[in-house]
Amino acid sequence: MHLVPTERAHRKAIDEHTVCLAIEGIGEPDQLPDWADRFALLGEPHRLAVLLAVHRAGPIAVTDLATATGIADTAVSQILRLLRAGGTVTGAKDGRIVRYELKDAQLAAILDQIRPASDGAHHELHGSAI
């Protein structure tokens, strides 16, 4: 059990190889709070909707995000303020408009795994064929 820290070396293991694989899978324990924070962002439906919209369509303005997500402009602004404070998104001025885009490449990779329904119902409902 070459990866087990010395303070846990006295514990018994059923399969030492599996224990080492599990420790490798966890990675650096000091990085876990950062990952937990990232996943917490995904745990609220409105934040997730804003993140997905910014990721797939950014740079995008608050008003356009509100229209796309069905969330009030003020709520979108609050969500973006939280995401900017955490370094997840960034905003760039375009005249009087601020356009937001995803800054966190690791979160982008996670968001890439979330795929919208592919049954075409959304596009048929709105009369578009994207």
UniProtKB/TrEMBL annotation:
The reply to whether Transcription figures as a keyword in the UniProt entry is yes
Which GO molecular function terms does the record list? Answer: DNA binding; DNA-binding transcription factor activity
Instruction: Please state every residue range assigned to the domain named HTH arsR-type.
Output: 27-122
- SMART domains in alphabetical order: HTH_ARSR
What keyword terms does UniProt attach to this protein? DNA-binding, Transcription, Transcription regulation
Supply the PROSITE patterns for this chain: HTH_ARSR_2
Q: Which InterPro entries match?
A: ArsR-like_HTH, HTH_ArsR_DNA-bd_dom, HTH_MarR-typ, Metal_resp_trans_reg, WH-like_DNA-bd_sf, WH_DNA-bd_sf
Q: Which residues form a coiled coil?
A: none
Q: What is this protein called?
A: Helix-turn-helix transcriptional regulator
> Which species does this protein come from?
Streptacidiphilus fuscans
